[in-house]
Amino acid sequence: MNLTGKMLIGGQAVAGMREASHGIDPASGLALEPAYAGADAAQLAQACALAWAAFDVYRETTPAQRAQLLETIAEEIEALGDALIERAMQETGLPRARLQGERARTCGQLRSFARTVLAGEWLDVRVDPAQPARQPLPRADLRQRQIPLGPVAVFGASNFPLAFSVAGGDTASALAAGCPVIVKAHSAHPGSSELAGQAIVRALARCELPAGVFALLFGSGRAVGQGLVGDPRIKAVGFTGSRAGGLALCRAAQNRPEPIPVYAEMSSTNPVFLLPAALQARGDALAQGFVGSLTLGAGQFCTNPGLLIAVQGPALERFVARAADLLQQSAAQTMLTPGIWAAYQAGADSLSTHAATVACGLPASGPNQCQALLLRVSAAEYQANPALQAEVFGAAALIVQCRDEAECLQLAEALEGQLTATLQLEDGDIALARSLLPVLERKAGRILVNGWPTGVEVCDAMVHGGPFPATSDVRSTSVGTAAIQRFLRPVCYQDLPDVLLPPALQHGNPLALRRLVDGMREA
Amino acid sequence: MNLTGKMLIGGQAVAGMREASHGIDPASGLALEPAYAGADAAQLAQACALAWAAFDVYRETTPAQRAQLLETIAEEIEALGDALIERAMQETGLPRARLQGERARTCGQLRSFARTVLAGEWLDVRVDPAQPARQPLPRADLRQRQIPLGPVAVFGASNFPLAFSVAGGDTASALAAGCPVIVKAHSAHPGSSELAGQAIVRALARCELPAGVFALLFGSGRAVGQGLVGDPRIKAVGFTGSRAGGLALCRAAQNRPEPIPVYAEMSSTNPVFLLPAALQARGDALAQGFVGSLTLGAGQFCTNPGLLIAVQGPALERFVARAADLLQQSAAQTMLTPGIWAAYQAGADSLSTHAATVACGLPASGPNQCQALLLRVSAAEYQANPALQAEVFGAAALIVQCRDEAECLQLAEALEGQLTATLQLEDGDIALARSLLPVLERKAGRILVNGWPTGVEVCDAMVHGGPFPATSDVRSTSVGTAAIQRFLRPVCYQDLPDVLLPPALQHGNPLALRRLVDGMREA
Predict the structure, then answer these.
(1) Residue B306 and residue B351: Cα distance in Å, rounded?
(2) DSSP H helix total and E strand total for chain B
(3) How many CB atoms sit inside 10 A of residue B348's CB?
């Protein structure tokens, strides 16, 4: 364990010049050493200058080189061993098994992007060869590839200290695309961030790539975060966090002389529709599945099921009674930070003011522990009251009771954009599910049947995204290999001699890509 | 010829309830009949409601149905015959042959998107089958496809009354993606717009598709344009026009409760680098090519070469003398509208204040005719003066003279984002070209060697886009088949039974798509 309290700029440990802060052990409330001082404007500018200088070199590395970097980062993270897990446990209150799983996910994600880079489909090579004899006008030789946008600012998330943080999905996909990355560490886990950052620095050195490809900064969102988004050398932003935080970054990015894309994953209540036949057939199992998903990791997941929608009646009452039973036995759990705990308390209080409490979990037995909470309202009350529609980050959920199926459909139409929407159904529900599906496709990035939304697979088909306010850019996913597309743009090359063409576009196709040539996909 | 002066809403001709305006024949300055009254708020809302109601139906049409629609629109436009060409000539001052070519391009573009829709790659189908036995956790069945964003507002461009207007590239790509389209016609060519709109309405009827899939509105940018962008049922915007106009739409789209993507193609000076060996070897031919490209269509192209960059010396002086000769013989040409003519005069005056005039074309012999203009400045003067860097829409160009190759490179770095950048080179210029290429890739959407940027091929490999301010979204192209991607978003389906999956994702692969299954592309 080698924590210095320093930032990483140009491959060097650099002490921040602004005010320092400590990670806090939420289980004890005590500050953890060392202190982490924030970047001042000059340090931020230096990281941007180095990223900018590294960009033209890094973006023309071969797919093999870039895959090697991603795999080497995974190796270096694994080489950190228990030191990383133990520091992350201290900083987050999350249990060992969860963090070991998250580390496996983080390294698997890096290796998955390595395979994606090597497969080369992200280059989307299109070739329309010259037709010098075409009438009335000849056609030039036209070739298109995707190139990276430029240096990317990544904001670490509070709830995944590894998988959505320094070496997480945003960093992995940006590096895969060919973009240098500057991470602003989340203040909740500076030590874990430093360790992961050191792993990336070592991997860059081992791969003999420019140190400017990566930097890790500490500091406040206002100073360092806004400073990064405002720097002209930053060309895209990846963020996972609150709606207010994401919207502030979007505004800053839009107000630049050159606006840039912001991929902010912000807020979602993840509606689960308990359809009538399913509720009738397996209300007990649904209650068990629901309470398990709601309370997993103290409910601190973007895809936590915060909204249950069902038609009123005896089957719903049986479900509610069973869920209440289970919830009342659920232990209080330590939340990630005192700030997140306080926000949960405020959110739970607000919900309790506007909705009837069904059940509470067991009370807290230590600092920063949250008590699970289940409430219910009518569909009419829910729609009339924006306070009920806001995400409460943590293990709180609202049951919305509809008069009939028509009101379920109408409620679906009234929902804001979501990361996920779930249908619990049996054969008898297929007709209703068919009516709901087109609505849910317009509302969510991922639609589940007979599952629970927590648990986001890293794979080609995953979408962790969705319409506003779930994210700031409905065209994107922040999990899964399609996330690389966020950091690419097309460039067309007209009549360039082979000697000037990049390898992906050369006539001999040295990268052996399956190009789209004259409208036909190569075998 | 069947011009009614009416809008098209729900397949019906509807008289606008706001103030009326006329197209103007720029060659005579006279108003053309009929008058076109603008949409009021209720009419605009009606078009949006119909588009919204049609969306869920239209977006689930089969690729074959959608391809048939696009081909039928092309047929119906061809069936308009000379009436369309003659009306467009009157409204734009453009010559017959140009408009015939533009019609062929428009219909070819529609048919090209029909082929793209049928090929199905735009669906980007990804399948990660369930792994129920996986340890430590099973994997669900995950399937991803692209779905359309929703109704799209398209703003017709002044300079392509057919190819970038009612049935132009934005409309064709949005319809191909599965989005209903509401076009705000450009006030410069309402009659051509009405004819093209009627063709689309007839095609929808022939294909038995909902009339709400298309609407054509007249009216001002402030009332109808901002009204469309502000309507919650509009989910994306396509625009080709001025920087001020595009930025106003971007602001409106960002300030909605639910921000939406705006694809605005705005401004570009399209730098052409005359590299030393090329200038030495073929200065005369370059002068001819340049003056031809500059004055083509009165310079009214987004890709007009408004900026020439070269190292000072005798070869440049010979080029300048020859270009001046040719330019002085170039006839004045009628511009598209009195407003565009006035803006050109103002822009040319501004350039003349800040740069030395090299040559002017022949003077005007009728209303709204522009005189070509060539000026020169030093690289230092150019960089110091933002007034020299603004696009002047029309046949005006600036020669920027550099002290040496290093200053050429430095000037390239200082350029704003561009649609195109061109290198005129010979073998002796390859080293300099290699230095310039990475810079130009960061600055432009299309890079040409030994060509001229006017002339934008409609094909798979084309990029008509580029960094801000060339466009508002560097990740996109508005010409070529990749334009369809602007109007799509991914959705993931987890564990849906086959009976609920869309055909593109069903286990039997009824659309015979080449899916990405477990990371492998199907043959």
Answers:
(1) 11
(2) 15, 23
(3) 21
> Looking at the domain assignment, is residue B334 inside a domain?
yes
Residue at A395 is within a domain: yes
Same domain, B261 and B276: no
Contact A457 B514 (CB under 8 A): no
Q: Do you know the residue count of chain B? A: 523
A363 located within any domain: yes
- The residues, any chain, with a CB within 8 Å of residue A141's CB and separated by 6 or more, are A128, A129, A130, A494, A495, A496
A17 contacts A171 by C-beta, under 8 angstroms: no
Q: Helix, strand or coil for residue A432?
A: helix
In whole angstroms, how far apart are CA B240 and each of B224, B479, B480? 16, 11, 15
Separation between Cα atoms, residue A303 and residue A322, nearest integer Å: 23
Q: What is the CATH number of the domain that holds B175?
A: 3.40.605.10
DSSP-derived 3-state class of residue B152: strand
pLDDT at res. B160: 96
Distances in whole angstroms, Cα of residue A378 to Cα of each of A395, A402, A407: 20, 6, 10
Contact of B55 with B151, CB cutoff 8 Å: yes
Contact (Cβ atoms closer than 8 angstroms) between residue B458 and residue B483: no
- Domain count of chain B? 2
Give one DSSP letter per residue of B365-415, joined into a string.
Answer: SSTTEE--EEEEEEHHHHHH-HHHHS--SSSEEEEEEESSHHHHHHHHHHP
Q: CB-based burial of residue B364 (10 Å sphere; 0-12 exposed, 13-18 middle, 19+ buried)?
A: middle
The answer to whether the CB of B123 falls within 8 A of the CB of B41 is: no
Q: How many helices (H) and strands (E) does chain A have?
A: 15, 23
A155 and A196 in a single domain? The answer is yes
DSSP letter (8 states) at residue A38: P
Digit-coded pLDDT (tens) for B235-288: 999 999 999 999 999 999 999 999 999 999 999 999 999 999 999 999 999 999
Interface contact flag, B490 A101, Cβ < 8 Å: no
Alpha helices of B122-267 — where are they, by DSSP H?
Answer: 169-177, 190-206, 226-230, 243-254
State the virtual CA torsion across A234, A237, A238, A244 in degrees, nearest 10: 140
Confidence tier at A168 by pLDDT (50, 70, 90):
very high
Q: Are A439 and A413 contacting, i.e. CB atoms less than 8 angstroms apart?
A: yes
Q: What share of chain B is helix, strand, coil (3-state, %, to 5)?
A: 45, 20, 35
Spatial CA neighbour of A312 closest among A408, A424, A403, A380 = A403
**Tens digit of pLDDT for each residue in A82-114?**
999 999 999 999 999 999 999 999 999 999 999
ipTM value > 0.85:
yes
Same domain, yes or no: A275 and A261: no
Catalytic residues of A: 265, 302
- One domain, residues B111 and B211: yes
- Asked whether residue A186 is assigned to any structural domain, the reply reads yes
Mutate which: A143, A426, A475, vs B, most B CBs within 10 A: A475
Please answer yes or no on whether A441 and B147 come within 8 Å at the CB atom.
yes
Of the candidates A228, A162, A151, the residue with the CA atom closest to the CA atom of residue A191: A162
> Which of B107, B179, B302, B402 is the catalytic position?
B302
% residues pLDDT > 70 (chain B):
100
Q: Mind telling me how many Å the CA of A338 is from chain B's nearest CA?
A: 31
Q: Which domain holds residue A107?
A: 38-132+140-266+474-486
Q: How far is A494 from chain B (nearest CA, A)?
A: 5
Token pair for B487: 């109007």
Per DSSP, A224 falls in state I
The single-letter code of the amino acid at A357 is: T
Contact between chains at B482 and A450 (C-beta distance less than 8 A): no
Residue A377 near residue A397, CB atoms below 8 Å: no
Residues B219 and B312 in one domain: no
Mean pLDDT of the A140-156 span: 98
